[in-house]
Structures are given as structure tokens and as C-alpha cells.
Amino acid sequence: GPVDLGAVSEACRKPSRPMRTALVVDATQSLGAVPVDVQRTPVDFLAASVHKFLFGAYGLSCLYVARRWWEDGGVEPLVEDEHFRAHMANADD
Question: How far is Cα 53 from Cα 30, in angstroms, rounded to an integer?
Fold first, then answer.
């Protein structure tokens, strides 16, 4: 059956947890077919490919990031945007 995101979210936010825990959801198989409310069931990150039930273009995806994460000054990206380096991929250095 479906996963109870409310219960998982609650477990992730228990004050007794020894470390900060993020709830990351891959909603590709359900977004558009099953109601998802990130306010009612607080998830930290929700990602989905939109070509399934949202009828988006193949290869297009979406990512939701909870405000508490993108406003947290202590969180840094693992990878910086490297689009500016794309022109250097075949450069003769």
C-alpha cells in the first residue's frame, strides 16, 4: 500500500532524534495521480519526473525544497552550477 508520509514526516522531526533528518520523496509514480500537499504533510524535498501523470515533456522534472532548507545559511550545495563551463567541454587546452 501507499506510504504514510505523515507518519514518516513526524518521525523525521522528533526532537529526540540525535541529528537533523530530511524527508526526501521521489513522487514520480504518484504526483498527478495522488493528491500531494506539502503543507499538510511536510516534506523537505520532493522530486518528480513530470512525464507520467502530469503529462509534461519527457526528461523534464520538478523539485520542491521546503523553505526551512533554502533559507538555512548553514546548508551549502554539494555541486555548484557549472553551466558556464559547458563551452569548455571540447576546448583544446
Answer: 7
Q: Longest C-alpha distance within the chain, in Å? A: 55
Separation in Å, CA 48 to CA 23, 24, 55, 84, 86: 14, 11, 12, 26, 25
DSSP H helical ranges for 1-93: 5-12, 67-70
Share of residues in the chain with pLDDT > 70 (%): 85
CA–CA dist 41, 62 (Å, integer): 18
Q: Is the pLDDT reported for residue 84 higher than 70?
A: no
> How many beta carbons lie within 10 A of that of residue 89, not counting itself?
6
DSSP 3-state of 77: coil
Q: Which residues pair with 45 in a beta bridge?
A: 24, 65
Q: In the beta sheet, which residues pair with residue 62?
A: 48
